[in-house]
Write a structure and sequence with these properties.
Blueprint (H helix, E strand, L loop, with lengths): L8 E4 L5 H12 L3 E6 L2 H11 L2 E4 L6 H7 L6 E4 L16 H29 L2 E6 L2 H4 L6 H21 L4 E6 L7 H4 L2 H7 L7 H13 L4 E2 L5 H10 L1 H18 L1
Parallel strand pairs: 1-2, 1-4, 2-3, 4-5, 5-6, 6-7
Helix pairs in contact: 1-2, 1-9, 4-6, 10-11
Length: 257
């Protein structure tokens, strides 16, 4: 895959650590020119210096202009990786409007805004690649995190829409849907993450490996945890049975709190 991205302009949002940093390192190793974005300017600078990239700090929804300028006007690959997660959705109810607003803005609308800005150029030249870091929660769900689960469904739906609408015009789309990944976000999921995600958690580098393999095989859906495919099939095949099983996990979580 080194030759495939040699000289390409790549933007990775939320790349100050975790999956984003792993993606930035992998694209740089493949010869790409990488813009490292993060809200935390120091974290972005640190990763950029490590890989010979360019740090562009700020909100992922608002940095595309600066990122494009840093890449001499051309973005070939955009990795919509920045994301937020809030606990919410226990017996106390799912409504925390601050969490919902932030989750919609970062997990969904940042992707929409980026695509809106990128598509005119990509469609004119007949090529472009949009990588959406979703989550297995976007295919399945996640206990104790209603805003996260719902907006990750939205992120997946938008990636699907991009793919079906523009694939015949040269736009490639990939949706990465891992379960637990050993990042700061996983550490912040608390007891729900400990129960559901920690036992099978993988490293961020494993996610980058899965993406590059999926790109090589020209696949839309990237599953760093292959077992998620069976869970997704079970959910579609018998929703009530699947929901009953998930509710047992919910009850187990409530009993452990």
């Amino acid at each position: 895959m080194v030759g495939a991205f040699q000289g390409s302009g790549v933007v990775v949002t939320g790349a100050g650590g975790g999956i984003g940093a792993a993606l930035a390192r992998r694209f740089a190793a493949a010869g790409a020119r990488v813009v490292v974005n993060d809200l935390d300017a120091e974290r972005a600078k640190r990763v950029a210096e490590e890989i010979g990239g360019i740090a562009v700090a700020g909100d992922a929804s608002a940095i595309l202009g600066d990122a494009r300028d840093a890449l001499d006007g051309t973005v070939d690959v955009y990795c919509a990786n920045a994301g937020v997660a809030f606990e919410g959705g226990s017996a106390d109810g799912p409504l925390d409007e601050t969490a919902w607003d932030a989750s919609w803005d970062v997990n969904v609308m940042a992707h929409v805004r980026a695509a809106h800005a990128l598509l005119p150029d990509w469609l004119e030249r007949g090529s472009g690649r949009f990588v959406s870091t979703v989550s297995a929660a976007g295919l399945l769900t996640m206990i104790g995190a209603a805003p996260y689960a719902v907006t990750k469904h939205g992120a997946l739906a938008f990636a699907e829409w991009l793919s079906l609408t523009y694939r015949h015009r040269g736009v490639k789309v990939h949706a990465i849907c891992p379960q637990g990944v050993r990042t700061d976000m996983l550490a912040a999921t608390g007891s729900a993450g400990d129960l559901v995600l920690q036992p099978t958690a993988i490293e961020p580098e494993d996610v980058a490996d899965a993406l590059f393999k999926g790109v090589e095989e020209d696949r839309f859906l990237i599953l760093p945890h292959p077992e998620v495919a069976a869970y997704y099939q079970a959910r579609a095949g018998d929703p009530d049975r699947w929901l009953t099983g998930m509710n047992r996990i919910q009850q187990q979580w409530e009993g452990n709190r």
